[in-house]
Amino acid sequence: MSGWGQLAEEALYTEAPAGDKRRAVSGNDAGQSGESLFGASVRLQGVHKSFGGKKVLHELDLTIRPGQFIAVAGRSGSGKSTLLRLLAGLEKPAEGRIEIDGRPVSGIGRDITVMFQEARLLPWKTVLDNVGIGLSGNWRPRALHVLGQVGLTDRAGEWPGVLSGGQKQRVALARALVRQPKLLLLDEPLSALDALTRLEMQQLIGTLRQRHGFTTVLVTHDVSEAVRLADRILLIEDGKIALDADNPAPWPRDQANPEFARLEKRVLERIMQTGGGNGR
Ligand SMILES: Nc1ncnc2c1ncn2[C@@H]1O[C@H](COP(=O)(O)OP(=O)(O)OP(=O)(O)O)[C@@H](O)[C@H]1O
């Protein structure tokens, strides 16, 4: 996974402008189909991205409906994080257009928040203050409300150092959600967690997404995670979308559901077929 750098860190903590008409954090937008009046629409047209002459993404066309949950899978080095960084405005495409709600990408902080593999909490701030980093005005009731949604109300006054890895990621999730994003970008946020904590976090993210209706793009190596969480799964290989599959299984998704197993098998087989064509 590539680093997001200082720019991302600073932008992550920037508050949405005053008067911005955000849906209340207790809103309920996303239906079973993932359609939402609140989530951002995303459109990529003819996107090319190279590093040092090496094509990473090319001729990428993609439309994401408001409120849809997309998982991006693929072999290591296939360009998943690059796609996420392009959506966040942290990288510019060499060619092509990327629009969020019909406007060119303007960066993290306003409508877009991100969650990384590491929670990136400030150790000298309490849990509550970490959630509220960069916010001004009367943010505490809102931050406490969101901490309640991730099950950490009673830890609000503690230091991050005493939390478990899963609890730290819950704080990071609260910090992302308190900004009421229209687009949530998840760059393998659960990959460092143990299996049980990971399952609990998947459930939490899926439930909160259903409740709030934000559009979500999750980069993951874990095909089960992709099928459990996403309405639609993209597989990137050789800079292109090698598979674009809708998930027929209804939320909450049960691994025992035959549709779940069929889709998981299909994605895994496709990954095996691709054979690491990028040579990485
Ligand atoms: N800033 C950069 N400068 C040069 N090359 C880069 C840069 N960012 C990414 N790359 C290269 O682009 C390719 C795709 O990287 P990317 O991080 O998008 O892959 P990924 O699919 O997210 O990989 P992983 O699953 O291992 O995290 C890799 O070959 C990587 O080395």
TrEMBL record:
| Cross-referenced PANTHER family | ALIPHATIC SULFONATES IMPORT ATP-BINDING PROTEIN SSUB, TAURINE IMPORT ATP-BINDING PROTEIN-RELATED
Task: Return the SMART domains for the record.
Answer: AAA
Q: What are the alphabetically sorted keywords of the record?
A: ATP-binding, Cell membrane, Membrane, Nucleotide-binding, Translocase, Transport
One Pfam short name:
ABC_tran
Q: Which residues form the ABC transporter domain?
A: 42-263
Record protein name field: ATP-binding cassette domain-containing protein
**Xref: InterPro entries:** AAA+_ATPase (IPR003593), ABC_transporter-like_ATP-bd (IPR003439), ABC_transporter-like_CS (IPR017871), ABC_transporter_ATP-bind (IPR050166), P-loop_NTPase (IPR027417)
A Gene Ontology molecular function term for this protein is:
ATP binding
Domain of life from the UniProt record: Bacteria
